[in-house]
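Report of the visiting student (M.T.), summer placement. My assignment was to run the structure pipeline on a short list of targets and document each run. The first record concerns DUF2470 domain-containing protein.
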Amino acid sequence: MLSSSTPTQDGWPLGIGVRFAVDPNGTPILFLNDSTLKFALHCKSSFLVQLEQYGLRTPQCTIQGTLEKPEDTTALKKLHSVWEKRFGHEAGIWVMSSDYKSANPDPLRDFAERMIDEINTSNKEDILRFCNIYVDLYFQVCDAKMLWVDRLGFDVRFRSPLNDVFEARIPFPREVTDEKGAKSSINCMSQLAWEVEKNFHAAEFEKVKQLKKIEHRGF
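After the run finished, the structure tokens were exported:
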């Protein structure tokens, strides 16, 4: 969590969740968009770092200092490459308070993590088949896992034979309203994908064409 002593243009203090890499000296590297950088640069800031560990312990520390953007173009490019190697490209959007208040919680929010663990553990072949059948690809997927599931579909990450890593969003045939509906949709999609793979059924659906290539090689 990054907090700055300078408020935004609206006068509100702002704390944002950020990921970070480190340079050879162990100094945190943050990659901020233009709107965040305008209020945070050259200001006193605090950076709360939490180490995720299993068990009861959750070590934390707060780093205090001033955010600076390197003036040396070569140094900036090197730091940027360190960031991209670990995280790739990231993008965020602003959400109006009225839109936030009018939004409804996703009905799968309490079950999604457990569902994903079960599928990644017990249904690996189904995930590979989902990627090969429902995503418009020019290669056969070598490895795949499900990242998240919600009422509209699920996100997958997969690896190509050249070791490139991609992510895609595969929609459900229709919106689901509960865990039972999500599992039913996944089972139906699994059966259809198997039939298409075995040439028992034609692929009478629109394949996903939007892919995101993950620049860092971690899977």
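The mean pLDDT is 85. The chain has six helices and ten strands. I thank the supervising group for their guidance throughout the placement.
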